[in-house]
Design goal:
By secondary structure, the chain is mainly α. It is about 70% helix and about 0% strand. This is DUF1758 domain-containing protein.
Length: about 180
């Protein structure tokens, strides 16, 4: 403040300097108010976005698959079939198949009640061999069916040895990549 009062312009015309100082103060207050308004708008839009996201999640949760009629179950089976890898031919591929199947179940929010039916439908003719080993109450238990399938198609030591002997490293593969596959 002393620097301003000692200035020649202030000494010659103190009224205009007061007006200039007041104008600068008003501009700063206006800028601060604008910043506060902008901040309020940002916060409000964040809140609106969060509210919309919560509503969308609630909508998704309320739209769980209702599989009471056969047409919706058929469409669910088709969509699960699309989301999963094909039925494995090799025993060592079954764990990957179940991983993709369970991800598809999670994506489509399939209830535990329908998982065994969908699995047996996906297996098709391979399911005929498995159904022989199951009791009626086990046919409704997805985990039991999965464990029997994994037992039935478990890789034998002989098949693992054959796969090991057949394995060759590609030119573009590093040794680490080859060993991990």
């Amino acid at each position: 403040m002393d620097l301003i009062k000692n200035c020649d312009r202030y000494k010659n015309d103190p009224d205009s300097m007061h007006k200039l100082a007041n104008l600068i103060i008003e501009e700063r207050k206006y800028d601060e108010n604008q910043q506060l308004e902008l901040e309020k708008i940002r916060e409000k839009s964040k809140l609106d976005l969060e509210t919309a996201r919560i509503r969308a999640n609630d909508k998704d949760n309320n739209n769980e698959v209702n599989c009471n009629d056969s047409s919706s179950l058929d469409s669910l089976i088709k969509s699960i079939r699309t989301l999963t890898v094909k039925i494995p031919d090799k025993p060592e591929e079954w764990s990957f198949f179940f991983l993709s199947l369970e991800r598809a179940f999670a994506a489509k929010r399939v209830t535990d009640k329908f998982k065994p039916e969908i699995l047996l439908n996906l297996l098709g003719e391979k399911a005929a061999n498995i159904i022989i080993y199951l009791k009626d109450e086990d046919l409704k238990n997805y985990d039991k069916i999965k464990s029997i399938i994994l037992q039935e198609f478990e890789p034998t030591p002989q098949s693992c040895l054959e796969n090991f002997k057949k394995a060759t490293r590609q030119n573009c593969e590093s040794h680490v990549q080859f060993a991990s596959s």
